Amino acid sequence: MDLNTIFTNQRTGNNPRTKASRTDFQRDFDRIIFSSAFRRLQNKTQVFPLPGSVFVHNRLTHSLEVSSVGRSLGSIIGEFIHDHFIHDLNDDSQNFYLHNLGNVIAAACLCHDIGNPAFGHSGEDAIASYFDRNEVDLKSKFHEKEWSDLVNFEGNANAIRVLAQQQQGKDAGGTQLTLTTLASIAKYPCEAIAKKKGVLHRKKFGFFQNEKDIFLQIASGTNLISESQDPYIFKRHPFVWLVEAADDICYNIIDMEDAHRLGIVSTADCKNLFYELVKSETDDISRVERKLDSISNENEKISYLRAKVINALINKSVELYKSNLSLIFDGNLDKGLLDIYKSENKTLQDIEQFSIEKIYNHRAVVEIENAGYNVMYELLDHFIPSILKSTEARKSYDKKALKLLPKQFFYEEGSDYQKVLGVVDFVSGMTDNYATDLYRKIKGIDIGMTM
Q: Is residue 262 domain-resident?
């Protein structure tokens, strides 16, 4: 792999370069921060329903923390690549790896969940199952690859659409990020029809048919290794493992801390699990013990241990990235960095198993997943039958339903596939509260004028 050709400051939308004090990759970060799609993550469920007085993480705070971890990973690996491959790097590449890889990973981490619907993964399931459950009525309206997109709806593919597609009446290129940042979030760089369980880069899919040309531009601009052209399958970009590791580090650990604050997990259980992981990765556990003894507040003890765990996992991820460098550069590493570590560290396995049993299957989590599934399903069912009818065949109730669809999501002149994607854009972009409020209104549960 040529390290000089796997990054570019070219953006979607083919905009000319402008002079600025910030680098192109710092500008990516800022564009995401100021985007409406990023702001909406503030009211999208991470794991727990937002309970009011006890603050837990939402998609936005999770993304900010992942970005912080990602910046550290990118900066450390960028410096390593600069120092160890300096004779292979041109001047621009030396500057990029030494000063900008951290910015790329931070920006990619910031938007890694931007395509996720409301209500966590149940929102994704609701969208996919809507089409699956209505296959008899709907499948004939779409080509095979289009239908595969819909019945396998996926937040990773939707992120590329949210960030790069041109909505009705808006500028070309979407958020107009660099192709490098977009390549860094493409965990599954293949078409939906190429999904294959057990294969890391094909476990899910990375782009809809509507954005295929955009993704091919990303692949070309960052020299993704092609595996197949029919269907399109690419190897992962080397930066993807860093973004994935940052996400895995945060959600494995932060969900445990949130559960502790909510009283779902006892202080003893959380402390013991965190302590054992820190102990397995430090040569001076006595220093950690002295610090813990000096803290009397239980939440603060857990916060301190959480910070130590995250630092340990960052160091381990860096070590694993370096030791698997050739496989990563060739796109052939078949596990995520944290999955490799999990296979050799019993405590991290225990944290994952504990989280599955005590957190992800907790009644409050399951309730919000069930509620979210039904809300999202019913919203799709309110709009999709109407949008698929010809203008002549639409009844009064169809026209009233479509009045609620904002103009940027209304692709009246497009194909059935594009019309449906517009509705999916609208519904998947909703916050938890907005989706719930709209559901209650169209179902007649809440009646009255609100602004």
A: yes
The domain containing residue 355 runs over which residues?
Answer: 240-361
Instruction: Report the SS3 class of residue 61.
Output: helix
Residues 187, 182: Cα–Cα separation, whole Å: 10
* Cα 64 to the center of its chain, rounded Å: 12
**Sign of the torsion angle spanned by Cα atoms 415, 417, 420, 425:** negative
The 8 Å CB, 24+ separation contacts for 294-301 are 298/267, 299/260, 299/261, 301/267, 301/271
3-state helix vs strand vs coil in the chain, percent to 5 = 65, 5, 35
In the predicted model, is pLDDT for residue 357 greater than 60? yes
pTM attached to this predicted model: 0.93
**pLDDT for 51 beyond 60:** no
In a domain, 318, yes or no: yes
In a domain, 397, yes or no: no
The torsion angle over the Cα atoms of residues 200, 203, 206 and 208, rounded to 10 degrees, is 160
The two structure tokens encoding residue 82: 């600069």
The whole-angstrom separation of Cα 401 and Cα 440 is 14
pLDDT in tens, 275-333: 999 998 888 899 999 999 999 998 899 999 999 999 999 999 999 999 999 999 999 99
Name the pLDDT band for 233 (thresholds 50, 70, 90).
very high
**What domain count does the chain have?**
1
Is the bond into 385 cis (omega within 30 degrees of 0)?
A: no
What is the CATH number for 297? 1.10.3410.10
Cβ neighbours, 10 Å, residue 185: 28
Considering the domain boundaries, does residue 235 fall inside one? no
